[in-house]
Amino acid sequence: MPKPKIIHDTTSCSCLKCQAERARTHAPTHIGYARVSTDDQQTAQQIAQLKADGCTQIFSDTISGTKTSRPALDKCLAALQPGDTLVIWKLDRLGRSLRHLIDVAEALRDRGVALRSLTEGFDTSTSAGKMLFHVLGAVAQFERDIIQERTLLGIAQARRDGILFGPKPKLKREQLIKAQQMLLDGHTPASIARAFNVNRSTLWRALKRRDAA
Asked: What's the structural domain count of the chain?
């Protein structure tokens, strides 16, 4: 009995050979993405401009730009192939933030896909667009460093002001003073812990922190 013939689907296979073959035979195309935040808004204007730019396939979402998952965007990114161009009406239609926009653009670049914004004239397939992309990346990193620096400075200042971070202490200052006095009076750690309704380990940690302060 002859063995069944196994058909290799090169259109969906993720191996490097099949990806290279699809890239070789695929005709580069423009795929558009449009987004509005609420049902009261319309994507008609965005879609009209994307069609005018030559987009043969357009995906659209009605969802806030802050959402991590956007169904139509996920399908759009999955449809893009090496040599294609993702076209958007405006940069803020794609990225939740500057950092997210840079991350998406970098992921597209690694796949051999260009990014083009009609409003800002941003196009990573051109030399000027590539240069602007690097500038935006530097700005995003600078913004991230500034936020991190301010956060660290704020934490340091809060600690100097006596503000404690982490879980709320289970024993107040007055309770710790009383617990120390009970130890001096001969009470056992277990009885003291029961009196304050905490574990012995919690009691000892609190007393050590007080002694170290």
From this structure: 2
